[in-house]
Amino acid sequence: MKSMQKLLDQISEEMQKAFEAAGYDGELGKVTLSNRPDLCEYQCNGAMAGAKKYHKAPLMIAQEVAEKLADSEVFGEVSAVAPGFLNLKLKEGFVTAYLNEMRETEKFGLTMPVNPETIIIDYGGANVAKPLHVGHLRPAIIGESIKRICRYAGHDVIGDVHLGDWGLQMGLIITELKKRQPELPYFDEAYEGEYPAEAPFTISELEEIYPTASAKAKEDDAYKAEALDATHRLQDGERGYRAIWKHIMAVSIVDLKKNYTNLDVDFDLWKGESDVHDLIPGMVERMKADGFAYESDGALVVDVKEESDSKEMPPCIILKSDGAALYSTTDLATIMERMEKYNPDKMIYVTDKRQSLHFEQVFRCARKTGLVNDDTKLIHIGNGTMNGSDGKPFKTREGGVMRLENLIREINEEMIRKIHENAGEKGYQVDEAQAAETARIVGLAAIKYGDLSNQAAKDYIFDMDRFTSFEGDTGPYILYTIVRIKSILAKYEEQGGKLTDAVIQEATSVSEKSLMLELTKCNAVLEAACEETAPHKICAYIYDLANAFNHFYHETKILTEEDEQKKAGWIAVLALTQEVLETCIDLLGFSAPERM
């Protein structure tokens, strides 16, 4: 697949040749975006760095280099300014040629890896038998976007939900169910028949059973002991308990899949802690035999402290004193299983940043005990929390943790209200079914863009009014821009124009050139977003691109332009802008409606 050199690299090469032609080190010719866009488009500060080395005034060096660029096919303007900066503007023809090549090249010329990596992204982490709440939103949204970005960049990516499906919550549900329906065959040890195919509870009953049992266990030690015993019996393979567990899993996963689908989040693997249960004894024995695991206060631990640690690093607990496995145990066994099945180059975990110590211990333990190869990368992306206007984790009006489906519903209702308001102002009738579908698409963009435009590690305030606004740095603003472009392109075709014949021409205005320069950054941004696992970089880019387009649109009469060639050139720029924006929002995990 053909790739293109990034624009900044191309123009830096041109500058490096000029430095060398003037008798200086080519390394000084690095070009960067201008920090004074009112003066120039790009700048080079190499003469400043060269002054010391060559014992020469930086301005003199800059002037000598500028002379060598008099006939450049890349730079239209090169000026040396005190104390020694080179201010640069690109030739319109050079930018045009770059964009026309970008249009013709797959993935806008993004360079594909010579050796694609196998990457596993662990980004669900939902607990079975509990509804998804707003705390599950960020790992799902961030993980989904990172998966899409890495896939687009040419890597082999596997997404795993990694369910919490094996711990005490299962014992609690089994115990509560036994109290309520002791007559069920699952609790009769003499029962040898087939167990019912139908679960003895619905998802809504299950979601009530768990918190009830959890509250009882906190107040009643005997009840908690029963739940712990039920957990052990389940994990030891008791037939009736395993059958209940299968019902819990089946009912929960249908509900989880529905909720994740509403978020347009999709997993390749629906694995859980239970999948590695049988691997734990062998792993533990190996850690003991190799001299890594030892007993401490009855528990089995592995030291993970390193000499360079400036703060306390507790050992990684492998088994509790009663022999029970912990999260660290199942996470380590999961790493072992992933290495055996997929041999990934990289494993990325997206969870709340409050779990960072846990993952630091697990990763160090996996390395020390040889569960991973020396060059296997283990990465924890710890996300901040989504907070309410009070700056504390987002809650319902009653003060409880808000369910994810309720948050999505509230956003959709707000979007429908805005669609009606908009229609009222413009005096047209709303088709209710279409409005509901548009509200769903735009609502999802509002949630996802509102989340992803922040760096993953940062907390942010969930602001319904701001996130659903059609103005400013929001998802709906980006979609509004795409819909506006679609509408112009559709009208152009209605006028008899052919999009396939349109070719980008040289810019004739500052706003047109600004839009074109924004488009040239696309492949560099996508590459950086993948390398740094940073979806927020794509958000920042498409906001700048949307602003550049809207600025150009407001001062250009596109469809009434009489010069057909000029009009076709503008249309070609718009078509590329739409394609770039739609590719980017797909990588962020949302799409645009046909109209708004």
How would you describe this structure to a colleague?
51% of the residues lie in helices and 10% in strands. With 596 residues, the protein is α/β, with parallel strands linked by helices. Among the domains are: 7-90, Arginyl tRNA synthetase N-terminal domain (Gyrase A, domain 2), CATH 3.30.1360; 168-262, no CATH class. The strands form four sheets. The protein has a four-stranded antiparallel sheet. The radius of gyration is 29 Å and the shape is globular. It starts with 6 loop residues before the first helix and ends in an 8-residue tail after the last helix.
In one word, what is the shape? Answer: globular
| Count of helical stretches | 20
- How much of the sequence lies in strands comes to 5-15%
Question: In which range does the helix fraction lie?
Answer: 40-55%
Please tell me how large the radius of gyration is: 29 Å
Give unreliable regions as ranges: none
Mean pLDDT: 95
Helix/strand/pairing class, anyone?
alpha/beta
Q: Give the strand order, joined by hyphens, for the main sheet.
A: 1-2-4-3
Q: What composes the largest sheet?
A: 4 strands, antiparallel
Blueprint (SSEs and pairs):
Layout: H1 7-21, E1 31-33, E2 42-44, H2 46-54, H3 58-68, E3 75-81, E4 85-90, H4 92-104, E5 118-122, H5 137-152, E6 156-160, H6 168-180, H7 203-219, H8 221-235, H9 239-262, H10 280-289, E7 293-296, E8 299-302, E9 316-319, H11 327-342, E10 346-352, H12 356-368, E11 377-383, E12 386-387, H13 404-426, H14 432-452, E13 460-461, H15 464-467, H16 475-494, H17 510-520, H18 522-531, H19 535-554, H20 564-588
Parallel strand pairs: 5-6, 5-10, 10-11, 12-13
Antiparallel strand pairs: 1-2, 2-4, 3-4, 7-8, 8-9
Helix pairs in contact: 1-3, 2-3, 4-17, 6-7, 6-8, 7-8, 8-9, 11-12, 13-14, 16-19, 16-20, 17-19, 17-20, 18-19, 19-20
